Amino acid sequence: MSRWKTAGAVLAAVAVGAAGGYFARPSRVPQADSPRAQHVAAPVVKTTVVARRDVPIYVTGIGRVEALNTAQVKSRIDGPIEKTLFTEGEQIAAGKPLFEIDPRPYRAVVVQAEGQLARDQAQYESAKADYERATDLVGNGFISHQILEQRQALMAGYAAAIRVDQGVLDNARLNLDFTTIRAPIAGRIGKRLVDTGNLIRASDGTPLAEIVQTRPITALFTVPQGALPEIRAQMTSGQIEVEAISTDDRRSLSRGTLRLIGNEVDQATGTVELKAAFDNDGDALWPGQLIEARLTLRYRRDVIAVPVSAVTPGPEGQVVFVVDLDHKVAVRKVVLGPTSEGRTVIEQGLQPGEQVVIEKLDMLAPGLSVQAEAS
Question: Is the peptide bond between 216 and the residue preceding it cis, with omega within 30 degrees of 0?
């Protein structure tokens, strides 16, 4: 028998007793002044005191965590891998050496380029001295202007050769530097995809490892399109807080801010995609992880809110059980507002300071004496 049938039986019995001169009551709910009630201990129920509080109003959506950046580590030159310089799965900084390719062939090219540059520089200095002497002689009429122009052209040719040599040397030095393959971004590196000793070629495009940036990290999730106007309004006035919650044990994993509102509504689902960013210093979020994103839109300030467990359906709407000063239960019809963080806003029906029962509601009936235990 439900508590409402029990409560109805109590009220019906009262009416019959008043009209017919006797009092009938169900055996489940003894009256406080009956002999039987004197031998039955009042049940213990947990209660909470009604108070005003600030309640956040939010919208939730299911989404997945994504790395802020993902980079495949590749080689820009050819050669055998001599060393692997990282531990698989570690958090690395940008620029950290990861692999080393045999540098000897590239070091030899650098030496060759340096020699070519030195030779052309010496020839340039000789041609420059000849040109300066020719300049003095042509003024005295000892040589022709044609010879002067030839020596000037020779000097200019060696100057151009020096510039070419410098470019060749810079390229050789760059290739030598590429023998140490470094992390292009900071993040968490995965397993190595090529072992030490293997010959790699830049033209093959073979990835050696992959790095995902997890600090900060992002999450993509969807919310109903009806929430879009308020979200856009909040974005124009400031940042919107987003909380990432685990889908299994409902733990709060991280807090971040909304960064992006999708540019269209999915017609098939009636949802819009949002993107949030999280600092993720403790690595609570992982790329590919399924989460629930809770987006705080605003706060209801100084409102009455009770635990969700205190509210139950009644014959004419939602009700709560209130314990009065005589430790007796009374039914109170309430008008509900939004629910947030395990509490329901009560628009009408309760006042601050009242005690409401938050457990064993199916055992209660109007007028029942109880022992209130504060939660």
Answer: yes
This prediction has a pTM of: 0.70
Four-CA torsion 359, 362, 363, 366, nearest 10 degrees: 100
pLDDT at 375: 78
Is residue 237 located within the same domain as residue 292? yes
The residues pairing with 299 across neighbouring beta strands, listed in sequence order, are: 56
- How many structural domains comprise the chain? 5
> 252: domain range?
58-69+213-299
Q: Is the pLDDT of residue 6 over 50?
A: no
pLDDT at 150 over 80: yes
357 within 8 A of 323, measured Cβ to Cβ: yes
* Whole-number pLDDT of residue 286: 96
CATH number, position 164: 1.10.287.470
- Average pLDDT of every residue of the chain: 88
Q: Say if residue 201 is exposed, middle or buried (CB neighbours under 10 Å; 0-12, 13-18, 19+).
A: exposed
Can you tell me the distance from the alpha carbon of 238 to that of 225, in angstroms, rounded to the nearest whole number?
20
Domain co-membership, 191 together with 228: no
| φ, ψ at 8 (rounded to 5°) | -65, -35
